[in-house]
């Protein structure tokens, strides 16, 4: 009897030991795969950066095929180095960080007689500088961000407090009184961080006033439209949707609440999210989407969904609405795999492509990553891998990465937006990166994927 027990014990021990070895082997091969992919994403990032440094050093962005660069305005604002820095930090790319810092501290100057689009400069440049300051600690990043913030403040001097679209960095002259919710509200994180890090509340206060003014002009059913006049406060275009010109207005209400704990933002978000779920969400035979509706009546006006709209999956995750996030993800993946890369917009009732280009936008990958982060469901990991592989396959050229003019023919479009570095590569990397590279639970990413950390009580 004692002998049988001993044999049984030995057998059990052997099985247990065997299982341990198998699990350890599986874990280590998963780790190998992650390391391999993390290296591949870094290599892709460096290839893009090398193209910038080789052909466009000091300019805003690169055209890798023509082997030249270009600026957005009459002078460069170093869009690519500033936008790329936080990703370099997350990837631990010391040499490239040094190159970007050298450019930024020797060349970036805002004292220029030049009109800029306040929203884009806030999310890319101010957001990039503030995040770089928090990640790297060099006070010159914060000084630059503050200088820029001061120069952009005149935008808020409208009759309603909603900001003008454009401002001259030297003279402070403003223009563009027809604007949209995104360009009104999607700087709240950046201006809020500037207030927190400099101790000057004016930036957040001014920006929040514009956000509240927009919220106060929501329709009776809780939606905002596409265009508004900031002096009369009248809506100019009443089309409601989640796409460009509205998107990050909603995103920042939730993220602002998460980062700053501002209860007003949560209240606004709670009202809007119900209206979005009721009037924009569309559960149809081709999948679960968010379409277009009239902001007053909620009547469906278009069954259009696009690459930009994909951001909402990440927002749903942050709101812990995983049921809707998972349903939307199925549609996002369907759109991505329609041709092998996602088109800019489709009509989801016919599944016809409306806009055929792909700008290497991040939003689909972003939402896939958030779902993977929160659920650890391997299907999202596989989807992320596939998205990265398709960028490698279709957007890569000999000396860099370029956008795609037509996802049906995969014709190349010789330009590369700075968000390739700030966002697309960062989200791709995070799928495979070690956990301490960037923990989503310890920061809030701005709409350009620059991490902001809550460093105050
Ligand atoms: C980025 O500049 C930001 O993500 C913005 O919110 C939307 N458009 C691009 C990326 O597609």
Write out key terms for the chains shown.
457 residues, alpha+beta, Glycosyltransferase, three-stranded antiparallel sheet, 15 helices, 22 strands, 54% helix, globular, binds 1-deoxymannojirimycin
Brief summary:
By secondary structure, the protein is of the alpha+beta class. It is 54% helix and 14% strand. Among the domains are: 61-73 and 303-451, Glycosyltransferase (Alpha/alpha barrel); 159-302, Glycosyltransferase (Alpha/alpha barrel), CATH 1.50.10.10.
Silhouette: globular
Q: Rg, please?
A: 23 Å
Average pLDDT, to the nearest integer? 96
Largest sheet: 3 strands, antiparallel
Number of strands: 22
Ions, cofactors and other ligands present here are: 1-deoxymannojirimycin
* Strand residue content: 5-15%
């Amino acid at each position: 009897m004692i002998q049988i027990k001993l044999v049984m014990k030995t057998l059990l021990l052997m099985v247990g030991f065997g299982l341990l070895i198998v699990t350890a082997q599986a874990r280590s091969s998963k780790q190998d795969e992650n390391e391999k992919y993390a290296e591949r994403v870094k290599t892709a990032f460096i290839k893009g950066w090398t193209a910038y440094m080789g052909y466009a050093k000091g300019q805003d962005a690169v055209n890798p095929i023509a082997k030249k660069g270009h600026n957005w305005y009459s002078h460069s604002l170093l869009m690519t180095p500033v936008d790329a820095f936080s990703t370099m930090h997350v990837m631990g790319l010391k040499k490239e960080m040094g190159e970007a810092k050298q450019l930024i501290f020797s060349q970036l100057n805002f004292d220029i007689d030049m009109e800029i689009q306040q929203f884009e400069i806030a999310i890319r440049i101010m957001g990039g500088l503030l995040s770089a300051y928090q990640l790297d600690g060099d006070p010159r990043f914060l000084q630059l961000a503050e200088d820029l913030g001061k120069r952009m403040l005149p935008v808020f001097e409208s009759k309603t407090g909603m900001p003008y679209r454009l401002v001259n960095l030297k003279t402070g002259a403003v223009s563009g009184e027809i604007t949209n919710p995104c360009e009104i509200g999607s700087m709240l994180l950046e201006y809020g961080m500037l207030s927190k890090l400099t101790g000057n509340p004016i930036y957040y206060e001014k920006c929040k006033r514009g956000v509240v003014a927009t919220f106060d002009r929501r329709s009776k059913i809780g939606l905002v439209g596409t265009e508004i006049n900031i002096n009369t406060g009248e809506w100019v275009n009443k089309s409601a949707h989640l796409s460009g010109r509205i998107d990050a207005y909603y995103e920042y209400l939730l993220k602002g609440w998460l980062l700053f704990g501002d209860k007003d933002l949560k209240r606004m978000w709670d009202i809007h999210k119900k209206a979005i779920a009721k009037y924009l969400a569309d559960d149809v035979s081709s999948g679960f989407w968010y379409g277009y509706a009239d902001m007053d009546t909620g009547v469906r006006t278009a069954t259009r969904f696009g690459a930009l709209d994909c951001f909402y999956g990440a927002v749903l995750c942050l709101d812990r609405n995983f049921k809707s996030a998972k349903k939307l993800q199925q549609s996002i993946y369907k759109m991505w795999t329609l041709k092998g890369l996602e088109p800019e917009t489709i009509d989801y009732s016919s599944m016809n492509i409306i806009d055929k280009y792909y700008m290497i936008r991040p939003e689909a990958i972003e939402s896939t990553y958030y779902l993977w982060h929160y659920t650890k469901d391997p299907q999202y990991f596989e989807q992320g891998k596939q998205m990265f592989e398709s960028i490698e396959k279709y957007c890569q050229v000999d000396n860099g990465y370029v956008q795609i003019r037509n996802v049906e023919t995969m014709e190349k479009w010789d330009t590369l937006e700075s968000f390739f570095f700030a966002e697309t590569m960062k989200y791709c990397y995070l799928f495979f990166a070690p956990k301490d590279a960037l923990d989503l639970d310890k920061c809030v990413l701005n709409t350009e994927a620059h991490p902001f950390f809550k460093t105050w009580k």
